[in-house]
Structures are given as structure tokens and as C-alpha cells.
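Notes to self, TonB-dependent receptor:
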Amino acid sequence: MLKTVFLSTTALLAATPALAAPAPDATTLPGDAIVVTATRTPTEADKIASSITVLTKEAIDQSQDIGVTELLIRTPGISFSRNGGYGTTTSLRIRGAETDHTVVVIDGVKLNDPSSTGGGYNFANLLVGDIDRIEILRGPQSILWGSQAIGGVVNIVTATPDAPLEASADIEAGSRETVNARAGVGGITGPVAWRVGGHTFTTDGISAYAPGTEADGYRNVGLNGRATVTITDDVSLDLRGYWTRGRNEFDGFNTDSPEYGVTKEFVGYAGLNVALFDGRFRNRIAYGYTDTKRDNYNPGGFTDHTFDAEGRNERIEYQGTVDIAQGWTAIFGAENERSRFSSESPPFSPVTQGKAEITSFYGQLSVEPISGLTLTGGVRHDDHKTYGGETLFQAGAVWALETGTILRANYGEAFKAPSLYQLFSEYGNTTLNPEEAEGWEVGVEQHLFDDALTLGATWFDRDTTNQIDFFSCFGTTGDPLCVNPATGLSRFGYYANTARTHAQGVELAAAARIGTRFTLSGNYSWIEAENRVAGPNFGNWLPRRPRETANLTADYDWAFGLSTGVAVRWSGKSYDNASNTFVLDAYTLVDLRAEYELSENVSLFGRVENLFDEEYETVRNYGTLGRSVYAGLRTRF
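result:
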């Protein structure tokens, strides 16, 4: 039903002639807007061949969302699953790819956790905090972003100052004893631009086990800071840091339990920027560091401390950008990434450790042979210390016509090196090969009525081979890999390159302002992500990936300072397992929100999430939040 309403609304928008300028929104991006993710350097949106969505600070504030996950799933091509309420394991998938096929970057530093099973990022502890901007780049992007960028890239940027002194603060409270507060202060003093921010969040939560009765609470605190020192007109120094600590209670397998986990994440960055030849040759030398530590506890259990893991990444990189001539730009660079992990589950398993090193070289050329047409081509070579070399290619074109039409076509290759856990844990296999993917997309975007109405459509296709999956040793005899090489003992299974998948689909988006106060936007995604391994599961849907999703948002600004909005999210059915025997039903969520300006700098806001108290699951037997009511105060100085 909602699909019909959404598509009918889109058709109505296309036929509406009386429109004014559009409001900033997640589904519309003016052609002259500047984005960074696609090329790792500021670039106009209508010169980027890949599909990209930008969430500005205005859009983030307007949504009133607490977590980044809630922001991302309102955009095209993204689905998620969560093992309970806030703070529990959260997996985000772009265009049907695995959750560890997404590169997550915050303030220039890659956020993957080398100690996690797939080496990806868990979105559980990523709250909005002092975030100023989010860019979502869809499709294979390994040329500039390296390993893991099979599904796409999520680039997060925290706030930067633009005044001598500025500050912001939000505080809200609501259902389940939830309190969320965040604040930031910064300024520009001579050659130094600086900002620090922090947040704290607490909630009594819900039972992670859906039929359970014991609430599983969550606590999160975090700090971030950044400073830019302008040494000369052509030389500057960037320093950035991000830290968060989350404590989440969770339940054991199909039962209530007192278990809880503590996750600490630290991100650091230092970069030197040097511009030469009147700014035509820009250089960046940087060092990035991440440290993720996870501990699980079970009070009253056989042992109190049940699990600990730590993953560290160090990356040294150089990037150069050269404006060769009018319309000709070259980007090139080199990176060295060293990662290590340790993990144990006391008292039953010993400490396992491992490390890896990848050295990479890349280059991309962008050419504008005629006005409005931009062609790009790139190549990347990765030298893994264990596996040797891997060379990838990319090519794309975007044509911005004077009619307001933008045509895009892009082909990209990507890879993902085996995670340290897949290599060196008790289930590890050091003979693994990297996962590989290749994909293409074509799209059209139409701006009408002086950008008052934007319509977009994209078709994509992706194949992934050598995908790493867990192979069970149950009932298997004679397989040498069913014996742990470190201990000589039999094991439950091991990781192997046994999977192959195919994904294809369409993403539709529309956004418009009708009159001067009413804004309407929406998107619809149809994504067919299937298992392509010969056997009983061939052709089955990949688990927890709905084939259809849709979002619809309407906002109205009243003349007396009140703004109101409604957001509707519909997710079609999905399956919880590879054999497609457990169905996760379709669901519809409706949220209401409002904000009232008390003065130029202070406003009251409130919202109702899941208005109709819909019961649904994104993971079988794990709970989700019911109707929730929040109210708060926002200040900007």
C-alpha cells in the first residue's frame, strides 16, 4: 500500500508546476554543492560519476535522530539490522552488500575494527553528537578508499567553526528514562581554528530478547576535537581526535541474561597540507590511528569476564592533487596500513593474535573535454604482505546538460582482504584469498523549476566472488582444515572462500518545495541481493536484506516559528537465514516531529517515533523499540 502511495506522490510531484526553491534534504543535492567522499578532495556534485547523498547539518537537526544509523536508513539503497535496542550490534548494508563491505570514515580516518569477525564497523555506538555532515557514496569505491569499499563509503565530518566564537547545545529526554545531551564550542583565533564537542546518552532500553521481560540499558559518552593551524597561506596543520565509550546490556541466546559489554573507540589524525604553484599542486601527508577495545561480562556466570578483543590500525598516507589545465585534474597517492588484533574468550579459548600490512598506490584522472561532460578513470595497486598484489580499475562519466539533466555512468572494481579474525582466530584459515567485486551503475537526475523539483533514478549491478563464509565441520571427516593448526584439536569450523553473490536494483528519489513552506521528499529502493553458490541455497535472498524499502517525508514551516514534519519508513519482508525458512515480516514506521523557535538562538523540539507502536523484527527473536516520545531544548550561538 505504501509503495503505491509513494509512487503516486512522485508522479504528482512531477506534474506540479507551481514550485519555489527547495529546502536542503537528504534526497536532493544542487549541482554546485561541494562534496569530498567521491574524490577525497572538494569536488562539485555534478562532476561525480557515482551516486552520492549528502546529509547537511540542517537536515541532521531537522530529523532529530539520536543515532547515525537512523539518519542513514532514510537514504536510498540502505538497510540495517539490530540485535535489540540502542547499543546492541548494528549492521548496515549498502545495496545489499555485507555490513563489513562498507568503509566508514570519521574526520579522515577509516573506522574499521580489525578484531571484529569481518573487520568491519559496528554502528552501535555511533551517535549524532557533534557531527556536521555525512556523505554516503554508493557502489564499489576501492580505487581511492581501498579494502572493504564494495558496497560504498560513509564519510562523517564533525563540526568546524566559522566565527570567532560559537557554541551549540542540545538536551532531550523521553521514553524509557532516556536522556540525550550534546554540546560543542569552537572559534577562530588568529591562525588557529578549533572546536571541541561532547555527548552523553543513557536509556533503560528494552529487552534485547524479544519475548524477554528484563530491560537492557545502554550508556554512551564521547568527546571529539579538531584544530587547524594555518602556518602560512600555503601550509596548514590538521589535528583531530574522537573517543567514545559505550556500555550495553544484552541477552544470551533466546533468553534473558545479565550480560553486558563495554566498547571503547579512539580515533586520532594528524595531517600536514602544502599547496605549491599558486595552489595548483596540493599535497597532504597524514597519519591516522584507531583503537577499538571490546569486553563482555556475565555477572554470576561461570566466569565474570567472558570475552575481550582489541583491534588497532595505523595508516600513513600521502595524497597529491594537481590541476593540470582547465578541466584536467589528477589525484594520486600512496598509503601504508598496518593492523593488528588480539582476542580471547576466557577461560575456554586461548589468546589469539595476528597482524597484517598493506601498501597501496593509486591514481585518478578527471577530464572535462567539453563543457558539462566530466570523464574519470583510475587505477589502484595494493600489495598485501601475505597475498601479494591486487590491481583494480575504475571509469566513469557524468554529463550535466543545460536542461538541468545530469546523466551518470560508472564502473568500479573493489576488493576486501580477509580480516585478521578470519585468518588467525581459532576458526582462522591462512590460505584465504581476498574477496573481489565489480559493479556498474547508470543514472539520471533532473532539476526542474530553478531546482525547485529534483527527480532521480539509478540502476546498479554488482557481482562479488571469493566471498568469505563460515564452513561448518559438523559431520565432516578427513578435512585437514577441521583441525586447529595451532592446537592440533578438532574445531567446529573454519572460514573459506565459498560464497558468491549478485546484487542488482533501482533507486528512485524525489524532492520538492511546494509554495514557500511545504517540503516533500521521498525515495524507493528495489534491491535483489541473491546467493549464487551452487547448491540448495542458490537463488535465495541474502539474509536480512529486504528487497524493497521506501521513505517519505513531509515538512511544513508555519508563519509563527513552528515547523512540523512526518517521516514514514516502509521495509518489505526479508529472511533471517540463508535457507530462507524464517521470514521477517514487512513493517511501516511513522514518526512525527516539531520544533518551535523561542528566539533566534533557542528552540524547543519534540517527536514521536513509531507512532502506531508497530511490532517488528530486523533480527529473529530480537526486540525493537516501540512507540517513543521525546522532547528537548536546542541552542545555537
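- Helices lie at 2-14, 57-63, 68-72, 142-145, 420-424.
- The longest strand covers residues 493-514.
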